[in-house]
Amino acid sequence: MFFYVFFVILVTQRMVELIIANRNEKWMKEKGAVEYGTSHYRLMVGIHSAFFLTLLLEAGLFGERLNEYWPWLMAAFVLTQMGRVWVITSLGRFWNTKIIVLRDANVIAKGPYKYIKHPNYLIVTLELIIIPLIFNAYWTLFLFAILNQFILAIRIPLEEKALMNETDYQKVNLSKQNFIPLQKKEKS
């Protein structure tokens, strides 16, 4: 039963975020913002939708089996959700699930963006590890940890390029670290 309550809360949260993203997208495009990466966005949505379906099948169909460390994992999950809220509130109307860039905008450099370049992607990566671990859904964990890194390998460079082309991103983010250790930091 715990799994299904958790699952409904998680899906509801994502639906609310899509409403926020759509409202922000409309506002930004009215201001002349440009969207990048429309082709990979469908793939990303597919991966995230498949995550929920796979989690539902593995953790729901095969029975709820909470990890023996689930209280610690739930605490870690709550921390990621606090991070998610911090990201969304820090970006305000500029937050989106898509790569939408307002030309000549000043890049947000507050909140978690003060410390690393892509905190939202770090949070999503942690969630895709923590959530399956809570329910011992190891196939879901393995599959989507890999798929997420695949889509981020496409998305992050595209987002960096879009921000470099349209904003003061290079000036603001020169000294920050990428959250993916293997990703090379571009030289200016």
From TrEMBL:
GO terms for molecular function: methyltransferase activity. Keywords: Membrane, Methyltransferase, Transferase, Transmembrane, Transmembrane helix. InterPro entries: ICMT_MeTrfase, Metal_cation-efflux_comp. Coiled coil: none annotated. It is found in: Membrane. The chain crosses the membrane at residues 45-62, 69-88, 121-147. It is a multi-pass membrane protein. Signal peptide: none annotated. This is Isoprenylcysteine carboxyl methyltransferase family protein. It comes from Bacillus seohaeanensis.
